[in-house]
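Saturday, quiet lab. Running sequence design on the structure tokens for the scaffold JK sent over.
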């Protein structure tokens, strides 16, 4: 019988029961095959040692904390733009970690709350939002610039907007003058306990100043497009609210409106906000701000493509992380956002903007919205 092949000798190491009896007999009688087998075994052992890696023990908490610190640092460093200055000081009543859900629901209330996503440049408009249109944004675009710029003098008529807890639905309706609609039914898993927060009507103004912007940019060491004379000196006026936020789950808020847990569902009602100007037109403001360094060209193109910019509010959607589509809600056209673990829908009807956001499916969030009465 000829000598055993390397394959048979290796099989004798890995699968000895698969070797034929005559092959096993030859191996027992052949010193040459035994020597080759020992060499093959030594080689296999050396390869196994080279390929061995220590057990990987992953600890997600430090990694998540590092990501959150990076996000917070980016938010703190991102430039403050005109509409954001109008909305600086908004307290949503939830810890920072829970604010993404609150921001989606609160987006309809002050135009500029959407500025927290990095798209405030696109929201400086002279308009009254009646429709909503998604704008795809790359997550890396949200922190293109790393400086804070001052566009002019900000003034609040009665203080910046603020949400305060109230004890009941009737009290929320009385203080806001809104209907404060309630869902007809809730999906399983959504707690029936509900808390109410009210924000009063808020008015504020921002007087744009080319000199202030130039000085701010010089101090920060950045280059910006000079503010045109048609914009310089114009004053933007914001008139927003009142608004009511209904929060299901998350526990009862304390006196400062802070929730201990993560809300399962949020329903928002607010009078449609308006922005007006003493001089600059919506088109002039949009052309100027979208041309500023750091505004992604693809985002600017989407904003410019909006057919009715005076009445359409762009809603930034993280590309690849969420999808959107137009839907009918309560007989009106609305925008549905599906983020996988949560869904939200926003629409305007009879001078009131409504938003429903929660840890539910797109079909469920639309059903909740349609059941409001």
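Result came back. Writing it out in full:
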């Amino acid at each position: 019988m000829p000598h055993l092949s390397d394959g048979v000798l290796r099989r004798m190491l890995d699968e000895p029961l698969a070797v034929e009896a005559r092959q096993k007999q030859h191996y027992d009688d052949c010193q040459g095959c035994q020597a080759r087998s020992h060499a093959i075994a030594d080689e296999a052992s050396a390869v196994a040692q080279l390929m061995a890696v220590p057990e990987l023990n992953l600890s997600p908490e430090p990694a998540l904390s590092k990501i959150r610190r990076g996000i917070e640092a980016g938010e703190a460093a991102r430039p403050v733009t005109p509409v954001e200055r109008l909305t600086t000081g908004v307290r949503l009543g939830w810890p920072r970690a829970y604010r993404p859900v609150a921001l989606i629901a609160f987006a309809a209330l002050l135009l500029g709350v959407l500025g927290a996503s990095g798209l405030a440049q696109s929201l400086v408009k002279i308009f009254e939002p009646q429709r909503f249109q998604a704008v795809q944004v790359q997550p890396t675009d949200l922190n293109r610039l790393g400086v804070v710029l001052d566009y002019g003098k900000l003034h609040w008529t009665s203080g910046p907007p603020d949400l305060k807890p109230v004890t009941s639905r009737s009290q929320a309706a009385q203080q806001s003058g809104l209907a404060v609609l309630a869902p007809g039914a809730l999906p399983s898993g959504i707690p029936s306990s509900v808390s109410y927060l009210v924000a009063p009507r808020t008015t504020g103004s921002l007087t744009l100043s080319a000199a202030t912007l130039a000085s701010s940019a010089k101090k920060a060491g950045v280059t910006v497009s000079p503010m045109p004379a048609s914009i310089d000196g114009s004053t933007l006026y914001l008139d927003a609210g009142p608004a009511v936020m209904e929060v299901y789950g998350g526990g009862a808020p304390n006196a400062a409106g802070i929730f201990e847990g993560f809300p399962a569902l949020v329903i928002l009602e607010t009078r449609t906000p308006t922005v007006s100007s003493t001089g600059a037109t919506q088109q002039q403001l949009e052309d100027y701000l979208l041309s500023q360094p750091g505004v992604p060209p693809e985002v600017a193109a989407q904003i410019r493509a909006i057919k009715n910019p005076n009445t359409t509010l762009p809603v930034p959607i993280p590309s690849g992380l969420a999808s959107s589509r137009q839907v009918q809600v309560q007989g009106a056209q609305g925008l549905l956002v599906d983020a996988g673990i949560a869904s939200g829908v926003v629409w305007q009807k009879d001078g009131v903007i409504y938003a429903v956001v929660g840890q539910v499916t797109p079909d469920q969030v639309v059903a909740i919205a349609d059941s409001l009465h």
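Notes for JK: The radius of gyration is 31 Å. DSSP finds eleven helices and 14 strands in the chain. Ask whether to fix the surface positions before the next round.
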